[in-house]
Amino acid sequence: MRIILLGAPGSGKGTQSQRLVEQYGIPQISTGDLLRAAVAQGTPLGLEARSAMDAGKLVEDRIVLGMIRERLAQPDARKGFILDGFPRNLAQAQALDEMLGALKQPLNAVVLMEVDYGELTRRISGRRSCTDCGKVFNVFTSPADPAGTCPVTKTPHRLFQRPDDNEATVKERLKVYDEKTRPLIDFYRRKGVLYSIDAAGAVEDVYERLHSALEHSRL
Ligand code: AMP
Fold first, then answer.
1. What is the pTM of this model?
2. Which pLDDT score, from 0 to 100, does residue 219 have?
3. Catalytic residue selected from 57, 162, 182, 189
4. Distances (CA, A) of 186 to 24, 83, 120, 129
5. In angstroms, what is the span from residue 173 Cα to ligand 1's centroid?
6. What is the mean pLDDT of residues 106-122?
């Protein structure tokens, strides 16, 4: 299965990817996670990406495409992948088409996760991630179980809020989504691989809709 989850920040791409990883046994490839790791490690690439990320703007295509090319070449991506947060503009989508064409690995489905603006901002303000395992929680909709433990540290999850999940940056990120990423909906619709789901509501209910869209895409 080669899947793209398309949707605004806060639409639940990361959360639903975690479920898909368990169900289909394919890796989640999140350019946001790859970039945050590069920033945390202080690599030259991370240093270059950081100011765009802090401002809620897109990181340069050259950087993101280099990361994706390298990640897709790893052995675990051969059986499939879930792209989360990539592509984010038409140039990236076209470059991805070329990469997958060369690998003879066409996309099975692009799932558009639709959530209204009010719900997006509420979800983003409640989002928390585990410092050690990266699992994403939400203080409103899916809080960490106080009795649960992190698989990495075997102690309770140590939660933090992403620095770009503040009000001003979120506003910019949603604007960037509208201007740069939304055109991908038509791009993939024309290719006949687009499925839209209502991504509002409980995580489990959204997963049901996502799963049935993906099963349908295999028919
Ligand atoms: P995300 O975790 O997907 O919300 O991404 C966080 C930030 O990383 C974004 O606001 C961008 O600054 C940057 N980013 C992530 N993915 C991409 C991408 N495909 N193209 C450009 N910038 C990206």
1. 0.92
2. 66
3. 162
4. 27, 18, 22, 32
5. 9
6. 94
